[in-house]
Design goal:
The chain is α/β, with parallel strands linked by helices. It has 2 domains: about 160 residues, Alpha-Beta Complex (Aldehyde Oxidoreductase, domain 3), CATH 3.90.1170; about 150 residues, Aldolase class I (TIM Barrel, Alpha-Beta Barrel). Helix content is about 40%, strand content about 20%. The protein is built from 13 helices and 14 strands. Strands 8-13-12-11-10-9 form a 6-stranded parallel sheet. Helix 3 packs across helix 5, helix 5 packs antiparallel against helix 6 and helix 8 packs across helix 9. The chain is elongated, with a radius of gyration of 23 Å. The N terminus is likely disordered.
């Protein structure tokens, strides 16, 4: 019996004693460090590694603890402990799947007797009616894990589906679609994983794995130095020589200053396609380029065709809608 299954059995017997015991199980989602490396001159944004078993377990335990609380009172009151059931998780609209391992873990952590047949994998494109999982076992466990399992798959499939739409929109160009740090607190690792399920790539994982000098950094330096762009790049190189340095540029003048200071990558913020083409020409052979700022599915193709290396899209994680996926019990 898993540790959380033991907790589940304990809450059914003694719901009032749940809180003190359950809090001993809580732990934050572990983070796999995302790496950016140099091959010759070019930066490569690597796709994130699949979720590890320990990460899945911790995320699921936290979600189940949050949802079950002192016990699933409706299920305990209405469904006998001996009742068994079979439920089918299926897509109700076209989507790209992400998060199935989390859904499976939610069921399994409530009962070692749960049996699961997987009919799809993360990264698969499916249509309405396609079965993702078939779950059999104690009805109490299936009912208590239902919402948590769906929350993971619906949300993460939404991110994967939107990422896939952006990837398809720039197909045939050199541009790679990147995510950002605009993620749900506590879910960054999961959402960035979902982006890769949709064919996108991950930008930096956090504030620690790459230098990205933004407009507010430059504003903070503006009273101290005459050329904050050059000063910021030089200080970053000196303090963190092992990391790659990117800087945000709002105009072509800043692009020139960044190039003269030897930056690796320039984030071209809120530039129109004409400005982007000019910036790309300036950067050719000297730095790579990333377009960002209000880019959507209607505009991303024109941005990519300007010749940028990367297009970062905050909407992949902050605006993706949950997909319509259901879990229906078989009669």
């Amino acid at each position: 019996m898993t540790k959380f299954a033991e907790l589940w059995e304990f809450t059914v017997r003694k719901p009032a004693a749940f809180d003190a015991y359950s809090f001993s199980l809580l732990s934050s989602v572990s983070i796999s460090v995302f790496c950016v490396f140099i091959s010759g001159y070019f930066l490569h944004f690597e796709r994130m590694e699949p979720l590890a078993a320990a990460e899945i377990k911790r995320a699921v335990e936290l979600a189940l603890t949050e949802d079950i609380g002192s016990g699933d009172v409706t299920t305990i009151a209405t469904v006998p402990a001996t009742t068994t059931a079979t439920a089918v998780m299926a897509a109700r609209e076209p989507l790209v799947i992400a998060g199935l391992a989390l859904a499976e873990a939610a069921f399994r952590q409530l009962s070692s007797e749960v049996k699961i047949v997987s009919n799809a994998r993360d990264g698969d494109s499916v249509g309405p009616g396609n079965v993702l999982l078939t779950v059999s076992g104690p009805a109490r466990a299936l009912l208590a894990a239902e919402r948590v399992s769906l929350n993971f798959v619906q949300r993460l499939s939404g991110v994967a589906t939107l990422a896939s739409q952006f990837v398809q929109a720039v197909k045939g160009t050199r541009a790679q679609i990147l995510d950002t740090r605009k993620t749900t607190p506590g879910w960054r690792r999961l959402e960035k994983y979902a982006v890769t399920c949709g064919g996108g790539h991950n930008h930096r994982m956090g504030l620690y794995d790459m230098v990205l000098i933004k407009d507010n950094h430059l504003a903070a330096l503006s009273r101290e130095v005459s050329d904050p762009v050059a000063a910021a790049i030089q200080r970053a190189r000196a303090q963190f020589p092992q990391l790659k340095v990117e800087i945000e540029a709002d105009n072509l003048e800043q692009v020139d200053k960044a190039l003269n200071a030897g930056v690796d990558l320039i984030l071209l913020d809120n530039m129109n396609p004409v400005q982007l083409r000019l910036a790309v020409q300036k950067c050719k052979g000297r730095a790579q380029t990333e377009a960002s700022g209000g880019i959507n599915l209607a505009s991303v193709r024109a941005v990519a065709e300007a010749g940028v290396d990367f297009v970062s899209v905050g909407a992949l994680t902050h605006s993706a809608r949950a997909m319509d996926i259901g879990l229906d019990f078989q009669l």
